[in-house]
């Protein structure tokens, strides 16, 4: 049973759960969220809380701050909340190495927190870390969805046009009527439910603040050890480009990132795209435990 806590996240009280080892604490881990998994009870986070305390590692999970007017939580705010959560964890476990674990969107905010606060973040464990911007990642991922469902070049070209049109509106470079007309045409296509386009554009541009966030300069600012997990068949992340981005950005680092490609996994570290604790990849769990055991001081 975890310890229930609260802390301040930019003026919002965030509920948290802390799972502690029975014996000596060797290190700590703060969990950062995927875009559609903002609650601390998500099964990938519960897996960490069940796995790591047995290895002497405390785990802090918290509820991500709520969206405002439907807008996603800015990555800078998520990074600030991560730093605040580390402070909460440190008050519970003392002066031991504390790192961040991030999944998908959380694998953008975790390196950002590490680059901004190298004094706080001792290591990173990242699952599906994209080395391209959110906008570029969605272009790639939605095109892959069409390919996987058997659509061809004509549909892929139309998808590319409509995403470019939507992005232009969100950047403030195109009027809403023109962009909405493109969305309306795309909505008639049978593939529209696959591509995560809004049926109605927001009334004002600028609602996707991080769409052109460039992670590479952030990666270059990360000085701590990094463990990267990628599902071998991940259709949402350009895996090779992302690994190359990490390697370019950290070419001068004393310790290059450790990369693990997970057989049988897609975007999440689960077998056969499962969505429960039983589907978590044993390779993922064993690799993480081994890497953290070698990194952290003996208990």
Description of the structure:
With 299 residues, the protein is an alpha/beta fold. The protein has 2 domains: 3-132 and 213-295, Rossmann fold (3-Layer(aba) Sandwich); 134-194, no CATH class. Helices cover 38% and strands 16% of the residues. It has helices spanning 43-51, 75-93, 106-116, 134-148, 153-171, 176-186, 215-220, 239-249, 282-295, and strands at residues 3-9, 12-19, 27-32, 57-62, 98-103, 124-127, 226-231, 258-262. α2 packs across α3 (106-116). The longest helix has 19 residues, at 75-93. The model has no long low-confidence stretch (mean pLDDT 94).
CATH class call of the largest domain: Alpha Beta
Broad shape: globular
What is the residue-averaged pLDDT? 94
Q: Judging by the overall fold, what is the CATH architecture of the largest domain?
A: 3-Layer(aba) Sandwich
**How many DSSP E strands?**
8
Oligomeric state of shown chains:
single chain
Q: How many helices in DSSP terms? A: 9
Assign a percent range to the helix content.
25-40%
CATH topology of the largest domain: Rossmann fold
Largest sheet: 8 strands, mixed
Uncertain residue ranges: none
Strand order of the largest sheet: 1-2-4-3-5-6-7-8
Radius of gyration: 20 Å
List the helices and strands and how they pair.
Layout: E1 3-9, E2 12-19, E3 27-32, H1 43-51, E4 57-62, H2 75-93, E5 98-103, H3 106-116, E6 124-127, H4 134-148, H5 153-171, H6 176-186, H7 215-220, E7 226-231, H8 239-249, E8 258-262, H9 282-295
Parallel strand pairs: 3-4, 3-5, 5-6, 6-7, 7-8
Antiparallel strand pairs: 1-2, 2-4
Helix pairs in contact: 2-3, 4-5, 5-6
